[in-house]
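Researcher: Next sequence.
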Amino acid sequence: MSSLIEVFESYCSFGSSKTLSMNSMGGQMDGAKFAKLCKDKKLISGKITSTDIDIIFNKVKEKTARKIGFPEFMEALKLIAAKKYEDKSQNDALGTLINDMLTNTSSLPSLNKTTKASTSDLTKRLTDTSQYTGTHKQRFDESGQGRGKAGRDDGSQITLQSIANRDDRADVRGVNQSFKK
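Model: Next structure:
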């Protein structure tokens, strides 16, 4: 069983690097991540809507701030608990809410509606490097692995002379006239 601070920090760092979402005072959670936490932990019910979650988030954060820390998060949970469990005292409601959050689901954010890799025949045909031709074929080795910069740059300088045919039989564009029909 995970602790509430672990749940908070896992949602703070969800979708971004930890260095961006963590500061010297701990994690910082924005409104979207707070709403995701509330949806994942099933705090949104008949009594509490997603609009209520947004209003509660804006109540607990400072006026100019865009994110909340753990103390503000706890204050938000108190407000949610008071609204969700109106018949209980504030401490009992908060305890019930935290207990439900920690026992019902995992502490990690869910990956609902994420993009899955396509496995259709069309995708397989388009990504089959053995069928590539021309300059694209040079970008991959025999096993289909990319060559990186070596596949894009052969080290030689491309000049107009190496591209265009300047023979007497060529037209202005450098196309050999003997090949024209």
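Model: The chain has a mean pLDDT of 79. The first helix runs from residue 4 to 12.
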